[in-house]
């Protein structure tokens, strides 16, 4: 992966968290200080504040962390993008100064608190409420599953404005300093994976002064997405780094594990599994290339939702699928921690989190299908295929869908069909990204063709499922 002196200086620490030896335990304060001193915040700090403001470097840093440990990479996404970058983008001058000083002088750590135990990703039902009190806001409610639930020094909290409905700008975004009190961890969780990070339930009765309210207002839920879009893009970095590792590990395992045929890799079906892992990796390489290209051609401020949603769903599905193929190849030893010959159990448990967190893939597939239909208009186009052929995000892939033109001659409607159409769109988006990636010097034509076939096959499977899904649902 392309290195710069800055990346070398930061990334040399990542091997300390490698899956080979780091299987348990939250990241320590001392280690966090070491990583901050090495420069992990630099890529999101603006040049005017003596930072590097370099999102390509940030993407490469996250990819390299994900190669060693997805929890480490997630720690960087939360602290740099979800917290620090949003404060730099939407904070008042006084807030930015305060946060920047804490990040650099005290190796500060920030988290984001959106999701609640009772309402989950149904954000409209959010129960945490902010009410004006003196020169600030009183925020009361409950949040859970926050990365760094017990250890973050800062929180970006979403809350509903008391007494205001959504169309009047119902949501507010507040930055709370943990040391000020009122953000209490009522319970800690024992997560299945991502052991580098601590999780739990947080109860809020906190006071936030006016200057710590973010300058981000509008109708509500779209603003919450504005906070998250840069993170969704970084799933390409997670997938790129993680799946490069999965591929290396699985090829090594299959080449060294004896069986009656010689070694596992001499078995045709094993090679098919390895090919699937390679395809998942190549898809994420193409998505990563798309993201890097985006940063070269756009200011980081462009927060377009549809491509970011496609990247999130596609990359996390690939991460889980690639890790599961690897685990199966590792046999029973893939089903336990601390095996000397593989890292599959940790890898699968970590990868699984990403199809759920940051809005579950099922829900995001529904949203992105709706985005697509709204943005590219139903008018004038009579079928989904017609829309795919005309949208700039998908038209490059249309030729690969010729064999399915009959099956795609429908217009998505209703939850079931919309979710499945969203899944199809993410695969089509990936084909378009692969097509774009194929013209680069680093791309291997054979790997690209196999990855495109993988996506087409997934589309065919979803279309097949679509035709029977209603019948299966009728059992309930
Ligand atoms: C490891 C980890 C880290 C996290 N970090 C943070 C964090 O830092 N900050 C934070 O605020 N939150 C965080 N979360 C919370 C996370 O974002 C939520 O768990 C996630 O958005 C899903 O919400 P939920 O669990 O309530 O699921 P729900 O919203 O209840 O959804 C559950 C399932 O129901 C189905 N479903 C629901 N609605 C629909 C629909 N309309 N159409 C089709 N299917 C549907 C889907 O299968 C979905 O997976 C984290 C979670 C995890 C696991």
UniProtKB/TrEMBL annotation:
Pfam families: Acyl-CoA_dh_M (PF02770), Acyl-CoA_dh_N (PF02771). Residues 112-199 form the Acyl-CoA oxidase/dehydrogenase middle domain. Keywords: Flavoprotein. Residues 21-103 form the Acyl-CoA dehydrogenase/oxidase N-terminal domain. InterPro entries: Acyl-CoA_Oxase/DH_mid-dom (IPR006091), Acyl-CoA_Oxase/DH_mid-dom_sf (IPR046373), AcylCo_DH-like_C (IPR036250), AcylCoA_DH/ox_N (IPR013786), AcylCoA_DH/ox_N_sf (IPR037069), AcylCoA_DH/oxidase_NM_dom_sf (IPR009100). PANTHER family: ACYL-COA DEHYDROGENASE, ISOVALERYL-COA DEHYDROGENASE, MITOCHONDRIAL-RELATED. This is Acyl-CoA/acyl-ACP dehydrogenase. It comes from Chitinophaga qingshengii. The lineage of its organism: Bacteria, Pseudomonadati, Bacteroidota, Chitinophagia, Chitinophagales.
């Amino acid at each position: 992966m392309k290195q710069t002196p800055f990346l070398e200086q930061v990334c040399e620490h990542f091997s300390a968290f490698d899956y080979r030896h780091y299987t348990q335990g939250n990241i320590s304060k001392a280690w966090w200080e070491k990583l901050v001193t090495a420069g992990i915040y630099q890529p999101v700090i603006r040049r005017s504040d003596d930072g590097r403001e370099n999102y390509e470097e940030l993407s490469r840093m996250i990819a390299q962390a994900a190669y060693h440990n997805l929890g480490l990479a997630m720690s960087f996404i939360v602290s740099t993008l979800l917290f620090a970058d949003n404060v730099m983008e939407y904070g008042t001058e006084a807030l930015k100064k305060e946060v920047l000083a804490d990040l650099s002088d005290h190796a500060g750590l920030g988290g984001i608190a959106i999701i609640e135990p009772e309402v989950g990703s149904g954000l409209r039902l959010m129960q945490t409420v902010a009410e004006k009190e003196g020169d600030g806001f009183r925020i009361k409610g409950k949040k859970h599953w926050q990365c760094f639930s017990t250890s973050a020094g800062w929180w970006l909290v979403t809350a509903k404005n008391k007494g205001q409905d959504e169309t009047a700008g119902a949501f507010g975004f507040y930055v709370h300093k943990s040391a000020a009190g009122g953000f209490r961890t009522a319970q800690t969780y024992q997560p299945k994976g991502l052991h580098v990070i601590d999780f739990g339930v947080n109860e809020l009765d906190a006071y936030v002064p006016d200057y710590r309210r973010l300058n981000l207002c509008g109708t509500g839920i779209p603003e919450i997405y504005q906070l998250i879009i840069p993170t969704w893009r970084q799933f390409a970095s997670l997938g790129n780094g993680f799946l490069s590792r999965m591929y290396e590990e699985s090829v090594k395992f299959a080449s060294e594990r004896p069986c009656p045929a010689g070694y596992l890799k001499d078995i045709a079906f094993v090679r098919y599994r390895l090919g699937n892992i390679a395809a998942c990796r190549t898809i994420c390489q193409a998505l990563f290339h798309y993201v890097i290209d985006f940063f070269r051609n756009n200011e980081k401020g462009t927060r377009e939702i549809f491509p970011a949603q496609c990247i999130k769903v596609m990359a996390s599905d690939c991460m889980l699928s690639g890790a599961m193929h690897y685990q199966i190849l590792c046999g029973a030893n893939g089903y336990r921690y601390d095996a000397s010959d593989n890292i599959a159990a940790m890898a699968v448990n970590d990868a699984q989190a990403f199809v759920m967190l940051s809005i579950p893939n099922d829900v995001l597939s529904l949203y992105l299908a709706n985005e697509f239909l709204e943005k590219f208009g139903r008018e004038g186009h009579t079928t989904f295929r017609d829309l795919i052929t005309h949208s700039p995000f998908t038209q490059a892939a249309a030729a690969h869908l010729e064999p399915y033109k009959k099956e795609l001659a429908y217009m998505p409607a209703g939850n079931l069909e919309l979710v499945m159409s969203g899944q199809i769109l993410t695969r089509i988006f990936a084909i378009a990204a692969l097509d774009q990636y194929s013209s680069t010097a680093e791309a291997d034509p054979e790997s690209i063709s196999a990855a495109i076939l993988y996506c087409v096959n997934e589309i065919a499977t979803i279309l097949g499922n679509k035709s029977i899904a209603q019948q299966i649902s009728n059992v309930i």
